[in-house]
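Student: Send me a single protein entry containing the residue sequence and its fold in token form, directly below this note:

Tutor:
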Amino acid sequence: MLNDSSYSLRASTLSLLSNYDTTGLSVYLLKMKGVKGRRGRFANAWLSAVSDGKFKQMINDVIDYTKHDYSDWTRANAYETIGKLDTINSKVIETLKLGILDKNTFVCDEALKTSKLLKNNEPVSYTHLTLPTSDLV
């Protein structure tokens, strides 16, 4: 079922496996990383599977889903997944800083919620973040 041509069936299978049997699932998740599927549904199923399976070792892979290549919904889900994985490293902190400054309110709010969660309700400080001059208005 994980190799079916239908991304909807693959997404459903991911959901079932991540909740009941994660044996070997991380290998498949790495193989399917970056696939968006129809309207981003597979990307969101991928993030949910990583979160539900508690694959903390995939935190840097999850960060890739915060990029503008994905829909705002997927990006916000990626920030939520980062929070659920409860893992902090320098890449997570930098990603949260960028998310807090994101122009999309939905994404920004989720990044802020996640930063509070990871920092025991103290948001990640972004006062020292240097922005490219093209971002300054």
Summary: The chain is about 55% helix and 0% strand.
